[in-house]
Amino acid sequence: MTDPVLETKGLTIRFGGHVAVDHVSCAFGAGELTAIVGPNGAGKTTYFNLISGQLPATEGQVLLEGRDVTRASASTRTHLGLGRAFQLTNLFPSLTVRENVRLVAQSKARKGFDMFSMASRHPELIEAADHALERVRLTRLADQTVSALSHGDQRKLEVALLIALQPRVYMFDEPTAGMSMDEAPVVLDLIAELKAEGGHAILLVEHKMDVIRTLADRIIVLHNGALAADGEPAEVMASAVVQEAYLGKEIADV
Amino acid sequence: MLTRILSGDMPRSRALSLVLLVIFLCLAFAPFLFPGTRSLETAARISVFIALAASYDLMLGYAGIVSFAHTMFFGMGAYGVALACENMERGFLPVVVGTLAGALLAAAVALVIGLFSLRVRAIFFAMITLAVASAVAVLVSQLSAITGGEDGLSFSIPRELTPAFRFAEGKLLGASLNGKLLNYYLVFGGSLVIFLGLLRVVNSPFGRVLQAIRENDFRAEAIGYRVVAFRTLATCLSAACAALAGSLFAIWLRYVGPGTAMGFEIMIDVLLMVVIGGMGTLYGAAIGATLLVLAQTYLQEVMAGAAETTAGLPLLPDLLNPDRWLLWLGLLFIASIYFFPSGVVGRLRQARRPAGRT
Q1: Alpha-carbon separation of residue B221 from A76, A161, A164, B39, B54 (angstroms)
Q2: A20, A173, B93, B145: which could form a disulfide with A87 (CB 3.0–4.6 Å)?
Q3: Is B357 a residue whose pLDDT tops 70?
Q4: Mean pLDDT across the stretch A107-123?
Q5: A84 — contact with chain B (CB < 8 Å)?
Q6: B179-232 per-position pLDDT tens digit
Q7: Is the confidence at residue A251, as pLDDT, over 50?
Q8: Are residues A154 and A173 both part of a single domain?
Q9: B226 near A73, Cβ under 8 Å?
Q10: What residues does the ABC transporter domain cover (chain A) (predicted)?
Q11: In this structure, is residue A196 part of a structural domain?
């Protein structure tokens, strides 16, 4: 395997006596889509927070393209190529849909500190925003304020923000949660497209097994914060650990 | 052209454009439209407070930062000019030196407060600013050898800006062509430049980031903006603009004192101006400042007139007695916040919004 895009080494966080993520070492390569599964409370989102910098690690390291970013702020990691979509929709509610994405394009172009030009005179940022909106089929809602959007459309916008960022690592945290049956494919197809493009690592926290089966190249299982399994989808799904983590030991034993 | 001057931030409502145009024209031609010392004082006061309220709105309305130290920054500009004029040879040099020193000091103090407290919770920052502002206000009134204490400082400004200097004989439309007129246009022009400068800043990429941070600071950081840096810079800029407004005010009054440049009442006034006019839009600050200064200056007179006309009726003359003006001012504020929760500007813009669009 070529050098991993993202790697965690012994990544750990403790909240008092509780170890939420327990020495997780894992490498993610370019062009690879890794599904992260585990029961509720297994530490999947916390693991994401440690990688993207929303929480400080108690122990261990996060390496982004070989570079240690364990102590870097979330914004620095974003500029280094880490893109994170959130599980609970986390947008700028009273701004328009286009402005939400434009802000990401502006961050990418590092124009945030420009205070002497008019924001409306940067057409390339608006174009980048419109392009990202087109990919998630939100163009017709571009001038709406986000708070007026349906839940499903907000989830799509969440993905559009990531597209505009063009990161090396895409991190999706249950991207289709709460979406209707006819909305989810837009997002899932897009993730498949990103995967086909290659060049970036994709991490996907997901509960729906059929989604994982169609998209994932690899599955890692977190259980009580620790890495419980890591391998090809078919192999991991058949393993006893997954059965136990998902169904409980008693049933698995039967 | 106009779009460029207003940085693309058009009033977006006919009523609002009209109100703003009236305010602008009245201030621009105040010496000729309303001859008389008192009305000119009011016009100058409105100009300065528009700049001050606008600079406060940059923090409160755009960046979502609550600060109680804004009058302190205003005072730094005012005292900067006063102290420079007091201690240096009379001329334009001390005015420039004092103005720059005040603005730099304000920005530096804002930087220190910001770096120490902007990374933590908003309420903590508000409390720190309150503490620092109170401490500085006490310091200013105690260090009477330097600041003149409670009495303040009267100082001399360049002769060209005083009534004693006449640059032309006679009068133009009832206004004497003297230094006072020049001084007014310095204040008006300076305030206008500050206002338009702030308008540019809030409509720049930087201003957009501030709004994003106000909306959701967590996500702003996640998409790559260093929230602390942006908040701190906004605070410094706002403080420097407040100081510039303070310098203009001191030049106009030729006096500074705790009551005119440091008092907590001014802080409350500025807060009210921004809230009444409408937070998050600089036009709101302009309208709020105009309304408040006008009310403070003329409400008593209006009431005296009203009391006189209702002299025969029971109770009313007592209620309308000019001594009760603060009561009525308070009621006006409560009413305006109740009926215009998004400020006057918010209300005016809402009125023309076509049905069906959110």
Answers
A1: 9, 13, 16, 48, 26
A2: A173
A3: no
A4: 93
A5: yes
A6: 999 999 999 999 999 999 999 999 999 999 999 999 999 999 999 999 999 999
A7: no
A8: no
A9: yes
A10: 6-249
A11: no
**What amino acid is encoded at A22 in this protein?**
D
Question: How many angstroms separate the CA atoms of B190 and A187, rounded?
Answer: 53
Structure tokens at B176: 């004497």
Q: Looking at residues A167-184, what average pLDDT do you find?
A: 89
Task: Write down the mean pLDDT value for chain B.
Answer: 90
**What is the enclosing helix (H) or strand (E) of B247?**
helix B227-253
The answer to whether the Cβ–Cβ distance between B212 and A111 falls below 8 Å is: no
> What b/e string do you get for A189-214 counting C-beta neighbours within 10 Å, with b at 16 or more?
ebbeebbeeeebbbbbbbbeeebbee
Are the beta carbons of B211 and A92 separated by less than 8 Å?
Answer: yes
Q: Do B205 and A114 touch (CB under 8 A)?
A: yes
The top-level CATH class assigned to B2-352 is mainly alpha
**Chain A residues within 8 A of B211 when measuring between CB atoms:** 92, 95
Distance CA A112, CA A102 (A): 11
Domain definitions of chain B by residue range = 2-352
DSSP state of B121: -
- Flag if B203 and A148 touch (Cβ within 8 Å): no
Q: Is the minimum CB–CB distance between A140 and chain B shorter than 8 Å?
A: no
Interface mutation target, options A98, A116, A118, chain B, most CBs of B under 10 Å: A118
Nearest CA in chain A to B237: A115
The neighbour count for residue B169, using CB atoms within 10 Å, is 7
Answer yes or no: do A2 and A34 share one domain. yes
Distance from CA of A44 to the nearest CA of B (A): 18
The count of domains in chain A is 2
B8 touches chain A (CB under 8 A): yes
- Long-range contacts of residues B81-86, Cβ cutoff 8 Å, at least 24 apart: B81/B155, B81/B246, B81/B247, B81/B250, B81/B251, B81/B256, B82/B153, B82/B155, B82/B250, B82/B255, B82/B256, B83/B146, B83/B147, B83/B153, B85/B155, B85/B156, B85/B157, B86/B153, B86/B155
DSSP state of A96: B
